[in-house]
Design brief:
By secondary structure, the chain is of the alpha/beta class. Helices cover 42% and strands 13% of the residues. It has helices spanning 7-19, 35-47, 75-84, 95-98, 119-122, 126-141, 153-164, 195-216; strands at 2-4, 24-29, 50-55, 89-91, 145-149, 171-175. Strand 2, helix 2 and strand 3 (50-55) form a beta-alpha-beta unit. The protein starts with a strand and ends in a 6-residue tail after the last helix. It binds pantoate. Pantoate binds next to strand 2 and helix 6.
């Protein structure tokens, strides 16, 4: 597996692959990889000849008081997980490469409406940070396809708009949520849950399953 830090080197590698007729997939991540991420890479592998995974803890999507400083940076174990699913290249750009003018002065990408509801209502600026960094990573790698988890439904919708509105030439794919044995969706931040919170969190999945079964069976709330 190649390890690439700079955009120029990434573009050169991707251009060599493309000249050889290869189709390229990008899987953007924040690192601290788990089985859910590996399923994104497996989907990427099925739809492309070369899979590039970016690991970049993006400062602009973390709000004040969120966990940017403490977000787990686990590059060594991430590399091992990437090799298990035969990724071709790991892209780890430094902050200075993604935000060369500092992130305060940087151009932002805003997807109105969908960014401001649901999770966005509680995390002002979060989806602006996500849309901005994904736009930059797509521009750096110029992949044919990019894969995101359906677990983050709102994020995936923001990214779809960000790509479809300006007709960016990349196919966005969603990969199904991967769950622990007790139904909890796999997520890097599950590590923050206490035993009690971890137990309660599984109810969410069970309640959603139950509600969807009842609606499918014709039950209506009124
Ligand atoms: O879902 C994530 O891991 C991040 O929000 C993403 C899409 C890599 C952007 O930093």
């Amino acid at each position: 597996m190649l390890i690439i830090e700079g955009t120029a080197a990434l573009r050169q590698q991707i251009s060599d692959w493309r000249q050889a007729g290869d189709r390229i997939a990008l899987v953007p991540t924040l690192g601290n990889l788990h089985g859910g991420h590996q399923s994104l890479m497996q989907l990427a592998r099925r739809s492309a000849d070369r899979v590039v995974v970016s690991v970049f803890v993006n400062p602009t999507q973390f709000g004040l008081g969120e966990d940017y400083e403490n977000y787990p940076r686990t590059l060594e174990s991430d590399r091992a997980k990437l090799m298990e699913v035969q990724v071709d290249a790991l892209f780890t750009p430094p902050v200075s490469e993604v935000y060369p003018n500092g992130h305060e002065a940087s151009t932002h990408v805003e997807v109105p409406g969908i960014s401001d509801i649901l999770c966005g209502a509680f995390r002002p600026g979060h989806f602006r940070g996500v849309a901005t960094v994904v736009c930059k990573l797509l521009s750096m790698a110029q992949p044919d396809t990019a894969v995101f988890g359906e677990k983050d439904w709102q994020q995936r919708t923001v990214i779809r708009h960000m790509v479809e509105d300006p007709a960016l030439p990349v196919d966005i794919q969603g990969a199904p949520t991967v769950r622990e044995d007790d139904g909890l969706a796999m997520s890097s931040r599950n590590a923050y849950l206490s035993d009690e919170e971890r137990r309660v969190a599984t109810h969410l999945f069970r309640i959603m399953e139950l509600a969807s079964t009842r609606v499918r069976d014709g039950e209506r709330p009124y």
